[in-house]
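#onboarding

Welcome to the new folks! Below is a worked example of what a typical request in this channel looks like: someone posts a single protein sequence, and someone else replies with the predicted structure as tokens. Don't worry about understanding the tokens yet, we'll cover that in week two.

Example request:
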Amino acid sequence: MKRSLHLALPSIDSLIVFEQAAHFLSFTKAGQHLGLTQSAVSRQMIDLEALLQVALFTRDKRRVQLTPAGGEFREMVRPIVRDLRSATLRMRFRQAQTGVLNLSVAASFCNLWLIPRLPRYYRDEAAPRVNVTPHVGAVRFGDGQFDAAIVNADRPPPDCESIRLLDIELAPYGATALLAELKAGRLQDLPRIPALDLREGEGAWLTYLSQVGLPHIPVDYVGSNSMLWVNHEAALAGLGIALLPSHFVEREVTQGRLVRLHPATFSIGRSYYYCWPSHQAKSEAVQHLGNWLKDSLVES
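Example response:
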């Protein structure tokens, strides 16, 4: 039974040749694309039609056309050929990328800390290459898409190895131009300055003000954003002042674009963790990046 079933199926080669012949509507052009002669393509199509017991093409001296059955068969074959090509390319790429680390990074950390520092990372010629994908939410390693990740979480992710990189501690920052326009420069001026709320740190402004001894100062919220990165961009644009991690605004403060309004910090009880599966085939690359992350955060 297995042998008869095998004999009833066309070869992969014949399906690829058919798909190209149907695409070009020319045995000659299909052959040129595949590195075959016109007669070889024609013979493959004759054999395929004999196997299927149906005419796939009409032929004359100048051109070939798909029959209705040929058009139907092409629609069925096309995704098979496409998926086969995709699987082949993916495996070739996987083999070529054994020294490359596929890294998923929490979006705010990715945009505000990692990407600006990657040029410094690559100054080390021995540094493994890193493919960076920003994400929001949890990361799963089960599908093999990522070798490691940097996540924003209240505790180390389960079922993987991890390093705590950075506790998320916030302080108030505002755009220099906005503060100059409002003639404000201290946290006590908050009633005259619009404030940007962070949904991830619910109640952060009220807690922060209480912590620094200013619990009765009213807050005029101009908006609420879901990510630190969005609050950062909004603050830079002059929409209002925001509670941001100092590690994320070092460059803007140095450039004079952002001003810190109070020295105290406030923890939202979350941290950034660098994590990876326990049995990681690229362990050397994972460790190299982890060491660089730790050293860079200590330096800053």
